[in-house]
Amino acid sequence: MTAWLSFLVVFLCSWSLRDLVVEACTCVPIHPQDAFCNSDIVIRAKVVGKKLMKDGPFGTMRYTVKQMKMYRGFQIMPHVQYIYTEASESLCGVKLEVNKYQYLITGRVYEGKVYTGLCNWYEKWDRLTLSQRKGLNHRYHLGCGCKIRPCYYLPCFTTSKNECIWTDMLSNFGHLGYQAKHYACIQRVEGYCSWYRGWAPPDKMIINATDP
């Protein structure tokens, strides 16, 4: 298998944020904090150009971006000029608009190039909540040692002290839910992790649908 096809297989099966299906592209929910922590690159940028490349079996779209701020990836690539994605949405390719919006874009670096897709966290900047912006600046980084475990059916229990139970899936909201929009799971005293929104909630080993 060629290096490109090997990467493509890993990319399509990788962690994801958007709970959607676009033909062959299937993604499962992931909390924004996990999307942040699992990314090589996290930036705020404006798309200023695009070009269809002939890389890969179906082509690759190369977006030229003007980087406004980098939140993660300084040691890997301190400045991002291009973002690559599959040209086809059926292969999880992202469609970004040129000279219109600023975007929050997360991605992985492969052979010196930044790749993103439908299963990565990307969003128009003005749609992010204040808590998500604070998370990008500081809070998500504090929780990269924590594990956010999705809860699909009650009751849900933590199995280790570094877990936070994510209950947005109980209402089928996923990354659009209240916890995803307003909470970060950060590490506290003695390695315990718990949800945080600007005040210190009590540590709990069992969480229900109303918590936080």
Order of helices and strands: HEEHEEEEEEHEEEHEEE
Mean pLDDT: 82
- Largest sheet: number of strands, sense, barrel closure: 5 strands, mixed, barrel
What distance lies between the first and last C-alpha atoms, to the nearest angstrom? Answer: 46 Å
- Using only C-alpha atoms, the radius of gyration works out to 18 Å
Kindly state the number of beta strands: 14
Helix content: 10-25%
Helix tally? 4
InterPro entries: Netrin_domain (IPR001134), TIMP (IPR001820), TIMP-like_OB-fold (IPR008993), TIMP_C (IPR027465), TIMP_CS (IPR030490)
Subcellular location: Secreted, Extracellular space, Extracellular matrix
Pfam families: TIMP
Organism: Sterrhoptilus dennistouni
Q: What are its keywords?
A:
212 residues; single chain; OB fold (Dihydrolipoamide Acetyltransferase, E2P); alpha+beta; disordered N terminus; Tissue inhibitor of metalloproteinase-1. Chain B, domain 1; two-stranded antiparallel ribbon
